[in-house]
Write a structure and sequence with these properties.
71% helix; elongated
Length: 280
């Protein structure tokens, strides 16, 4: 294992707020760079993570697309891609949980805690590295959609806003994954995330209209944070989407902002507190 530490001056760090902030930024970047180096040693896993959503798009688009009627009789890929962009924000959380849980169970996290470094650097570094990985994965999927005929119809600013909402959801979900990884050590952490990822992904408006489900199940799907982001992306890209007259259907963009902020407000401090409390 390779561990990065600061030079000898890191042992006696200055106490001024500005210098502490600069050292905190340096600590976070050190931990982010550590994750990059680990990924460089297993490029196949990273590449597979980028291509797996592409496979899902091709499978649903070509195998099931002809059987699904799109609102307004639009093209199926126009409808599918914004939902898949949102669903991709859930994919890959297993990798986050595995890495965090592995570091905690092997004592690596305890070693970091014994060093003169910012207490939040480990979890923040992990989150930043995974966000950069998610950006590349989303770019790959957007490129795939463009090749398949998908496009946005309301200008670049609206498209950037949609991408921003997608990454905001990813940022929030990463904190959920980090918290699970810190709380559950061992293989059960991966199983717990896999159990959560697929129901969250499919129990949504990504592939089907919630009104076609039993009433109680449709209500759960409508309130799913993934449904909110998918609906907001379709609206901003001006792609066809499921129509509805209720408050949820009319406020997709608002919910796509509220849900990630609420999840982050809960799980970011929980993750930092959990990290600080390990092995105490």
């Amino acid at each position: 294992m390779t561990t990065f530490i600061h030079p000898s001056e890191s042992v006696n760090r200055p106490n001024s707020p500005g210098q502490r902030f600069l050292y905190a930024i340096s600590d976070v970047w050190t931990m982010t760079r550590r994750d990059f180096m680990h990924w460089r040693g297993r490029p196949g896993t990273i590449l597979l993570g980028w291509l797996f959503p592409v496979m899902i798009v091709l499978m649903f688009g070509f195998l099931f697309g002809g059987a699904i009627r799109v609102p307004g009789d639009g093209g199926y890929f126009e409808f599918l891609m914004p939902g898949m962009f949102a669903m991709t924000m859930v994919f890959g959380l297993e990798t986050t949980v595995i890495s965090v849980a592995s570091d905690a169970s092997k004592g690596v996290t305890d070693r970091f805690r014994s060093m003169p470094m910012n207490a939040s650097a480990v979890v923040l570094g992990r989150c930043i590295a995974d966000m950069l990985n998610s950006i590349v994965g989303l770019a790959v999927l957007i490129g795939t959609g463009l090749l398949l005929g998908w496009q946005w119809h309301d200008g670049l600013n609206a498209a950037i806003a949609a991408i921003g909402l997608l990454l905001l959801l990813r940022f929030a979900l990463l904190w959920v994954g980090i918290y699970i990884g810190l709380s559950t050590k061992g293989p059960e952490a991966v199983v717990s995330v896999q159990i959560l990822v697929w129901p969250i992904g499919f129990l949504s408006s990504v592939f089907v209209d919630p009104s076609s489900m039993p009433a109680w199940l449709g209500a759960i799907a409508e309130w799913n944070p993934l449904s909110a982001t998918a609906a907001a992306a379709r609206e901003l890209f001006m792609n066809p989407g499921w129509q509805g007259d209720n408050w949820i259907a009319r406020n997709g963009i608002l919910l796509a902002i509220i849900w990630p902020i609420a999840l982050t407000a809960v799980f970011l401090p929980l993750s930092v507190r959990r990290y600080r409390g390990l092995r105490r």
